[in-house]
Amino acid sequence: MSVVPANIESEILSIGSAEHRRLLGQFFLDTHVEYVPEQMQWPALAEEELTRLRSLPFWQEAVSTENVTSNTVAAAAALEADPLVRKAIELQGFEEMRHARLLVALTSHYRIPIESPPRFTPRSLESDFLFAGFGECFDSFFAFGLFALARESGFFPPALVKVFEPVMQEEARHILFFVNWVKYRRSQLPGWRRPAFRLRCAWIILKQVASRVKTARSMGQPQPAGAGSSENFTLTAHQDLGAQVTLHRLLELCLIENERRMAEYDARLGRPRLVPGIARVLFRFVPSGI
Q1: CA atoms of 98 and 118, how far apart (whole Å)
Q2: What is the dotted CATH code of the domain comprising 18-36+47-216+230-285?
């Protein structure tokens, strides 16, 4: 299957226009899906499936990450003067917290030990929101491919895959909203403040890239005893899934899944370009056997 993206940006609205702002907020509210994590019907797992699930080392890291992200996003709603966009950010904060609640419900049901992380308090609303958002752009992109890998390999039973499918699609909504919000936010600033905003975004992106490069360089190297998870667990989780997959194939899956999930939303909204762009370059130059 081709990983070349369709021409989805041909009808993008003028960034920062009233119509772009309305579409940005309304699309997010209209595509919200109701569910209650504590009322989820978890499938019964065979002993072998349960052992595999419990053996995954990243549950604590996943819960901690969602805790930080949800509190950051919820606080960031105060940045917005526009009622519709603010309501969308508040909803995203609720959905992020719901992800954390879902993970807690899963680990509780299947008796996977985790510790409740302390509530995270953002220090700088805008900078922390940008850091969380750009981090989610990286993490969700790789999570799309990992989820497809787990589905194809049968590592997770189909019933459990079905439970988490709406969550993965929700992550696609989050990063689509975020990349459009960043452009919208920049357009609302006075001209003299826009270069500083661009520089701040660039610096945060560089920090995120550097963190992922550090993680990628450690892939395949022995880990210290007791090391249960990593900072960028979505980048290395394919090793934990026990699937024999090359980096080339993983990148291909990520690109295909990213395009498929984004295709569900209004083509007038700008799509994430940075992480898929990096992945396409790597996909082109990384040998298929690696």
Answers
A1: 16
A2: 1.10.620
